[in-house]
Design brief:
Distance between the termini: 40 Å
Number of domains: 1
Mean pLDDT: 86
Helix content: over 70%
Order of helices and strands: HHHHHHHHHH
Structural class: mainly alpha
Largest sheet: none
Radius of gyration: 19 Å
Number of helices: 10
Shape: globular
Strand content: under 5%
Oligomer: single chain
Number of strands: 0
Length: 203
């Protein structure tokens, strides 16, 4: 329950009206919004999802769990990140409020979907899954960090763009690295428990 509340608070803090002026002025502040949604709020929502699932009818809860297919989650999350940053949608969203709201909804929903196989259940493929996701986010950060011209017409400062790229690359990598450590440790503990159970049964 606590992670769910914390996730909701991060969303409120990130998307509140007090953040819009800063996000409108600099790409760095705008990128911080997106990183907070995808790398902080979404994992917290997944960690607290057990409370929600237990409150839902069993059939609905089972259906939601089945939807969390890792392959589809990875594709959806990657596609949204790459498409919004490299197709011109980023500029379009800054000029149209409805598109901007949709962008944030897509970031949050696909990130929750992405984190579910990692944090919502024990899955042996979580480590390679996270490893495969790291380059997707890193490439966006690297492009923003190294490009010598503004990628988005709304933000004219190349220095600001470089800071935004560094922020995305650094915070994204740290979040993914933390997820890798957590999933590897959780898998090792589960293997140890299974080994103990097999030993006890063998006796």
């Amino acid at each position: 329950m606590i992670p769910l509340i914390l996730g909701a608070l991060v969303i409120i803090a990130t998307l509140g009206p007090w953040t819009d002026p800063a996000a409108d002025e600099t790409l760095t502040a705008h990128m911080l919004q997106h990183v907070a949604l995808t790398m902080v709020a979404s994992p917290l929502l997944v960690l607290g999802s057990g409370t929600v699932l237990r409150a839902l009818p069993r059939r609905v809860a089972r259906a939601l769990v089945r939807i969390g297919n890792p392959l589809f989650a990875w594709i959806a999350w990657s596609a949204v990140l790459l498409a919004t940053h490299f197709t011109g949608y980023y500029d379009y969203a800054l000029e149209h409020q409805s598109a901007h709201v949709l962008e944030h909804v897509l970031y949050l929903s696909t990130a929750v979907w992405f984190w579910w196989p990692v944090l919502g259940r024990r899955w042996r493929g979580a480590v390679p899954y996270v490893l495969a996701a790291m380059p997707v986010q890193a490439v966006i950060g690297v492009v923003l960090l190294t490009l010598d011209r503004p990628l988005y017409s709304h933000y004219s400062s190349v220095g600001d763009q470089h800071r935004a790229g560094a922020l995305m690359w650094l915070l994204g990598s740290l979040s993914m690295a933390a997820a890798l450590v957590w999933t590897a440790w959780d898998w090792l503990r589960a293997e140890e428990r299974r080994a103990v159970a097999r030993e006890a049964y063998g006796r």
